Each structure stands twice: as structure tokens, then as C-alpha cells.
Here is the input.
Amino acid sequence: MHVVPEWFQRLYDTTGLNFSVFYDSYDWNRYVSGLRMTLLLGVTTILASLVLGAIGAWLQGSPSRLLRGLIDGFVVVFRNTPPLVQIFFFYFGLGTMLPASETAAGLREPLLGNVQWAIVSLSLFAAAFNVEIFRSGIEAVPKTTVEAAQALGYTRAKAYRYVILPLALRVCLPALNNNLVNLLKTTTLAYAIAVPETLYAVKQIWSESQNVVEMMVVLLGTYGILVGVLVWIMHRWERALRIPGYGR
Here is the structure.
């Protein structure tokens, strides 16, 4: 159990390469805490953006011109503005407008904290792209298939849920894969509002231990592994849903 910490401690003593996160328990705990926060941000925003994207794509086909206009406006705004600006808008803009409660110490406690606002803003940012991705998949579903579902008595909502969306998902999974990978990498922007994710934790470590290069290597390796795992999961999902001869 102590072989790895001792090896990195000896590496530091002999070469000066200070990977303190691997031999110092305090730095290690901070790094793991940041990694947990990154995983929380990644999982919640991925799931939320998928749900919002699927709902938004369905509403784009609504007979209501108002609903279609609202979804189109949402897509335009969130696709054409930087995600960091969106995070600042939600946290410093809307966050200050919401009611706040007072703690026992008399301090002002906002309704939503920095972690919640990061999840909201990043989910909406990715959802705007997911709406268009799902829409492209829906358009690839043959009209005869939709008509057959309607002929069987499916309502518009049930036809979308049980027939159109499952087929559209198989077509748009490659594009969805790219967007979700970008979303995972974009979670580092939560650092700007002091969300204690991996980049935030690593920055604290290298500020105290003066080991910027070493911790940057750790940071790059961490995100390389996280993205690799997500790509592997998405590829497994794509193979599991593949219908021979469909969407190819």
C-alpha cells in the first residue's frame, strides 16, 4: 500500500519532480475531492442536457408557433454565446436577483449556490446543441415509419417516445458523443465561480507546493482518462443500439 507514495517521495528527493498528490495525503484528499466534483458536474450535466435536448427537439415539431419560436430562440442564444459568459450571467446576474435566506450567523445564503448554477448553465449550454443533434436524427426517420405509428393509434407524444426517438438516437449518437465529450471538458469553466472541481483543486495544490509542471501533467492525464472512459461508454452504447442496415 505504501509502495507508490514511497516511490514518488523518493522521486522528489532524487530528481526534484514533486508529484505531491501521490505521496502527501492532504494533497491527495484535495485532488480526490476535486475529482468527485468533476464527476458530479459531468454526470448531472450530461443527463440533464440529454433530457432537455430530447424534449426541445420534440417541441420543435410542435404545431404551436409560440413553442417553436421559444425553442429556436433558446438554441440561438445558448449556441451563440460563450459558456463562460453564460455561467457569469446565471451566477452573478440571476443569482443576485433570487431571494436569499439568512443563516443563524446572520449571513446571506443564496437560494442556489455556485455548484447548482454551474450545473444549470452548463446543462442549458449543452442542451442547445443537443436539440439540434436530436432534430437531425428525427429528420432522418422515414416519414412512412411515423405514419405507421399514427395509423396504429399512437399519439404524437407516444409516437415520439416509443418510435421516433429510439430510431433518431441511433442516427445521432456519433454527433451526440462529440457534444458530450466537449461538455465534460467544459466543466472546467466552473472554476471561474469557485466550484471546487479538479482544476480548482489542482490549482490550490500547485500554488502551495510550487509544482506547476507536475500538477499540470496530473491534470492533463486525469481529463485524458475521463474523456477516454466517456468515449468508451458512448461507443458501447452505440454498438448496443445499432440496428444492422439502419442509419448506415
User: Anything to note?
Assistant: The mean pLDDT is 88. The longest helix spans residues 25-60.
